Amino acid sequence: QVHLVESGGGLVQAGDSLRLSCLYSGGSFNYRSMGWFRQAPGKERQFVAAIGGSGSRRFYEDSVEGRITISRDNAKNMVYLDVSSLNADDTALYYCAAGLAASYSREYMYSAETSYPFWGQGTQVTVSS
Fold first, then answer.
1. Which of 23, 44, 47, 78 is most exposed, with the fewest beta carbons within 10 Å of its own?
2. Cβ–Cβ < 8 Å for 36, 49
């Protein structure tokens, strides 16, 4: 049974940086792509970033690229999301998700929620100005 637990969220100031962490349990971590999604108040959940099983392939939503870095440590079953220059638009519930495979044949699959059958409960990030 795959289980995901996010941590690292909280109340931060605009301009700050933070690291979100996600602990994976359930085996075969390096055989799964991992993704981060977020849901702002009153909005639909959206893709933020994804990383393949080996960590060599990374994908980002266009609006956050340059400010956000996704990484993973397969020895620790951890995936991370580093966010810099936080602004009010980053206020959201951030979800970690585990995919069905280490890699996908089409790039769009990394950003599709349907590619991720396993989800954490989320960690809240609130940015104050």
1. 44
2. yes
For residues 11 and 85, what is the distance between their CA atoms, to the nearest angstrom?
14
| Long-range pairs of 38-43 with CB within 8 A, sequence gap ≥ 24 | 38/90, 38/92, 38/93, 38/94, 38/95, 38/125, 39/92, 39/93, 39/95, 39/122, 40/89, 40/91, 40/92, 41/91, 41/92
Q: Bridge-partner residues for 129, per DSSP?
A: none
Structure tokens at 59: 């994908």
Residue type, 119: W
pLDDT at 64 over 90: no
Mean pLDDT of 59-82: 95
pLDDT exceeding 70 applies to what percent of the chain? 100
- CA 28/CA 7 separation, integer angstroms: 21
Structure tokens at 17: 């940086």
- Is 87 a residue whose pLDDT tops 90? yes
